[in-house]
């Protein structure tokens, strides 16, 4: 019966997508029975299906647009952040270095003069002087011991952020032990290398491992350590190059 089939067909068409309605709805109804008897029924079905198809066709579009918008906004979230420019970082470092107390800044820079003066004097004279090299290593050993003991002075006050535990106090004794070992070595090259290791360890403690110092002091420590290690490397390079030249000159004089 037509009246009984129409609600069933309409319900089926309502639950199916628009493409299946287009293929199975009107064409099957037109070709199953006689065209003349089902023409009115097909018109009614098309009239009922038109608003349904438009709503179904618009609904996925709106869903897809919202998904695209969400995808577009999510891309902006996951964009890689541009790293800070090195110029800006250097400006921040210089500003924090300028903010350091004047006595600490001037005394720290003045303490680097013996490191720089000794290899500079040997380079100007053009001769390697073992006494100057040993004096530089000795002064570096005293500096490394001072930097290690400074951790004790920072951890002992009651209101200090660093606690007087094994980590702070035991690591404060490592640089003096390495500095003593550098003085016991007979070869100046080996002593300078041991001293560079001690200075690098103290810098690692002060910057990353142990409770932090103020920012201006960390930058001051980096600058000072770079200058000290560079001076020791310069002394080792002068020792190697000038000793070779002096040995060649002696061979020439003997011949």
UniProtKB/TrEMBL annotation:
Transmembrane regions listed in the UniProt entry: 104-124, 136-154, 192-213, 219-242
Source organism of the structure: Lanius ludovicianus
Pfam families found in the cross-reference section: DUF3429 (PF11911)
Gene coding for it: Tmem69
Protein name: TMM69 protein
Signal peptide: none
Stored InterPro entries: DUF3429 (IPR021836)
Keywords in alphabetical order: Membrane, Transmembrane, Transmembrane helix
